[in-house]
């Protein structure tokens, strides 16, 4: 797409665990409508025609390949980086962020809690060793998520709308561009 075209509406792949919600299709439609309010064309992971196949692994491969295609089609990725089933973002979302980065696409993420990891995990850190209760060190760079996400992404405190607002502002000011 040519960003100098007056009809240019950047496409944004909406990475996140919302696909696991029981009302995922409805949630995706609402998320895409919100994208449109900010001048973006939302792409939700369910925006592909994948039907269950007789072999579950074949279905998984089709979903994977479909999501990769959707990320490739998008101008940028906006990811829900909130914890999913634990204290870290959804693994699929993290993969999609890495893929987008490798493809040279801008990354945005949103988090409800943007305190640094060490502060957020303080209740699980041994005060003597400084290690997490699992015995592992905790990244302490003042970042809200692992540095491999926080460094390449613009991480916004809040929800999807907050991140869309930031992306729209960045687009208007030239901080966000597509080449």
UniProtKB/TrEMBL annotation:
Pfam families: Nuc_deoxyrib_tr (PF05014). It comes from the Bacteria. One of its GO terms (biological process) is deoxyribonucleoside monophosphate catabolic process. Keywords: Transferase. InterPro entries: 2'-dNMP_N-hydrolase, Nucleoside_deoxyribTrfase. GO terms for molecular function: 5-hydroxymethyl-dUMP N-hydrolase activity; transferase activity. This is Nucleoside 2-deoxyribosyltransferase.
């Amino acid at each position: 797409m040519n960003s100098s075209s007056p009809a240019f509406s950047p496409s944004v792949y909406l990475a996140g665990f919302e696909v696991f919600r029981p009302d995922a299709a409805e949630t995706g439609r609402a998320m895409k409508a919100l994208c449109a309010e900010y001048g973006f064309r939302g792409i939700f992971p369910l925006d592909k025609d994948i039907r269950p196949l007789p072999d579950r692994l074949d279905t998984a491969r089709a979903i994977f390949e479909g999501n990769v295609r959707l990320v490739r089609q998008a101008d940028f990725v906006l990811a829900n980086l909130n914890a999913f089933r634990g204290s870290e973002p959804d693994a699929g979302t993290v993969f999609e962020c890495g893929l987008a980065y490798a493809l040279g696409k801008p990354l945005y993420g949103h988090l409800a809690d943007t305190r640094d990891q060490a502060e957020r995990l303080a209740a699980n850190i041994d005060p003597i060793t400084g290690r997490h209760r699992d015995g592992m060190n905790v990244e302490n760079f003042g970042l809200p998520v692992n540095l491999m996400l926080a460094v390449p992404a613009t991480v916004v405190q809040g929800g999807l709308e907050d991140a869309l607002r930031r992306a729209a502002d960045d687009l208007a000011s030239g901080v966000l561009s597509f080449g």
